[in-house]
Amino acid sequence: MASAPLRAVTEKRALVLAEIYLPGDRWRLRAVGHGYPTDPARLARDYGVEVEE
Prior knowledge:
There is one protein chain. The chain is α+β, with helices and mostly antiparallel strands. The chain is 13% helix and 32% strand. The chain has one helix at residues 40-46, and strands at 14-21, 28-36. It has a two-stranded antiparallel sheet with strand order 1-2. β1 and β2 (28-36) form a beta hairpin.
């Protein structure tokens, strides 16, 4: 079991806690812990998702 403490998450509106990816024939899980102070649309755009405003 893994854990990651969240510190100073007071002004963030969107969070990326983990990423699941397939770098070959085996799935991986990576703890990220990255927060976005703006709206969740920014988070989506950073991952290549088109967002209508």
